[in-house]
Amino acid sequence: MGRRQRQPRPRLVAALHAVQRLPEERFEPERPLWIAAFMDEEGTRFNAALFGSRAFTGGDVTALGERADADGITLRQAMAAAGFDLAKAGDADRVSEVGAYLELHIEQGPVLDETGTAIGVVTSIVGLRGYRVRLTGRANHAGTTPMQHRRDALAGAARIALELREAARAREAVTANVGKLTVEPGGANVVPGVADFTIDVRATTAAAMVELEGLVEATVARIAREEGLEPTVERTFALDPLELDPDLVDVVERAAAAAGASSMRMPSGAGHDAMLVGRHVPAAMIFVPSRNGISHSPDEYTAPAHVELGVTVLANALRELLGTGRG
Amino acid sequence: MGRRQRQPRPRLVAALHAVQRLPEERFEPERPLWIAAFMDEEGTRFNAALFGSRAFTGGDVTALGERADADGITLRQAMAAAGFDLAKAGDADRVSEVGAYLELHIEQGPVLDETGTAIGVVTSIVGLRGYRVRLTGRANHAGTTPMQHRRDALAGAARIALELREAARAREAVTANVGKLTVEPGGANVVPGVADFTIDVRATTAAAMVELEGLVEATVARIAREEGLEPTVERTFALDPLELDPDLVDVVERAAAAAGASSMRMPSGAGHDAMLVGRHVPAAMIFVPSRNGISHSPDEYTAPAHVELGVTVLANALRELLGTGRG
């Protein structure tokens, strides 16, 4: 949920609270119930995102053991120092024992907060393509090189960033971002000869993802040609979108209604453990609002009343999934 | 002309050659003739551009003595180590003894090379305004923040760079450049919350310069407002344009014609020693082609035949300025 080691774990606490309610309500589940606390969803320390759910779903995480943190300590060393053996991570592969998966999370976006909606019923998790692009033009004197003679790498990057933004704005549930950009040589009086930047595009369906891929490649190629720039494009990351299980999504929606909570269906723009687990078993997610859409920041905040509603919705959904019981 | 310490000094050699021709042609000047080799026009080592011509025109250069190079050596120390005393730099103030000033230079731009013209008759030296701009939006998750909720500082910077480029393209002898740009926090999956960049605009007339200043300020303010960004704009550099002396410009043009050289009138987009000297006495400049417009680079090249034509034009101009002689 957050990236600091010692912050509270509201998701885990919320799951415990939800499960605690079942015996209080004299509900007896017909099936076993697990509470999962997956390690290092964000993966910020070792750049090994979704470590816990990767191991749980049978992914080979031993290859991540050599990834090092900022101090040069590897994941393998850190695990050993805490009394764990990376070689045994395969023991965590138990997804085949699970029938369904629910995840409660803050939205990390502004939609619920701005619309005053208490519960987000997540229908899909976006797919993602990451690119690293280099445009090479010609560095030149900013005063003596007439405008029509320039091969300005930054101008090309600027056009690409703005065109992709327009393309994303014109589509449903699509985002495009240029988050990292550097120019060379980087002198105030020099036309930029090289621009290096990232592109991050996301969409909720496989078809939209394919369209976006083509759009990124065509936009970079066309603008580079028009600006007299040499492009190189490297795809650095690819994760396909995941449709969450329609029946489970309905369960969550009913659970929100039973709690008297306002709700809306929405995609998730961020990756989650559900993204991996949901490729193996039916999965759904419950979102609660993040104030101002802020996350990964000391300003991240979700009101206690919203957390409590989330817990209630989770408990309601568990009751439906685990059997009628005697409640 | 170049920025490395030990490269040849073609301007000085060309001036010596031109002056050498006069007695060879039995020409006797009616007025004295000085050859000037101004120190450190570029000012790259100590960030003290035009040091020599500043001192020659009575500018206070002692304040530059504390500027240090990359190794921490100050200009004052470097001068002392070479046997010079910065305190005596005022002795160089002798512009009042000069009647006219001619400067031979490579174009540092592509116009002569591309048009196949041998001599550029410089009519003016551009004025320059430099700015440092910061746009502050809101860093946010690139996946979970819908497009319409973003306050993307890089998008604002991209629009400003492209609009100023269009404005410069639509005008005569105007340039605009964004040469330096950084974004924060600079993560591929984070909407940029801050963009810092430079703007460099140039024009050849005072009126155009005033219009450009207004345009820069209005463009930054409008786009920042439209994008929901907070702008701060700092003007870091201001140098007014200089019209070269019309009579001396005519002298140079006639000198080119007398040499049988093709010529064209053109502004200079770069600053030169003539920019300071020309504020005190009539000044003109002669340009020779730079291959591909390249300068300040190991690839800088001017063909020997072009240098020789430049020397001939300079000698022709000197004959007209210094009296009819007996040639």
Describe this structure in words.
Two copies of one chain form a homodimer. Chain A is α+β, with helices and mostly antiparallel strands. Chain A has nine helices and twelve strands. Chain A folds into two domains: 10-43 and 52-58 and 89-125 and 242-321, Zn peptidases (Aminopeptidase); 127-239, Alpha-Beta Plaits, CATH 3.30.70. In chain A, strands 1, 2, 10, 11 and 12 form a five-stranded mixed sheet that branches. In chain A, helix 7 (246-258) packs across helix 9. The longest helix of chain A is centred in the middle third of the chain and has 22 residues, at 206-227. At the A-B interface, strand 4, helix 5, strand 5, strand 6 and strand 7 of A face strand 4, helix 5, strand 5, strand 6 and strand 7 of B.
Q: Report on the biggest sheet of chain A.
A: 5 strands, mixed
Radius of gyration of chain A using CA atoms only: 23 Å
Please work out how many helical segments of chain A DSSP would assign: 9
Strand % of chain A is: 15-25%
Give the class-level CATH name of the largest domain in chain A.
Alpha Beta
Amount of helix of chain A: 25-40%
Structural class of chain A: alpha+beta
The name of the CATH architecture of the largest domain in chain A is 3-Layer(aba) Sandwich
Count the domains of chain A.
Answer: 2
* Biggest chain pair interface: A-B, 59 and 59 residues
Distance between the termini of chain A: 32 Å
Mean pLDDT of chain A: 91
Q: What are the segments of chain A in which pLDDT stays under 50 over at least 5 consecutive residues?
A: 1-7
Q: Total strand count of chain A, please?
A: 12
Q: Could you name the CATH homologous superfamily of the largest domain in chain A?
A: Zn peptidases
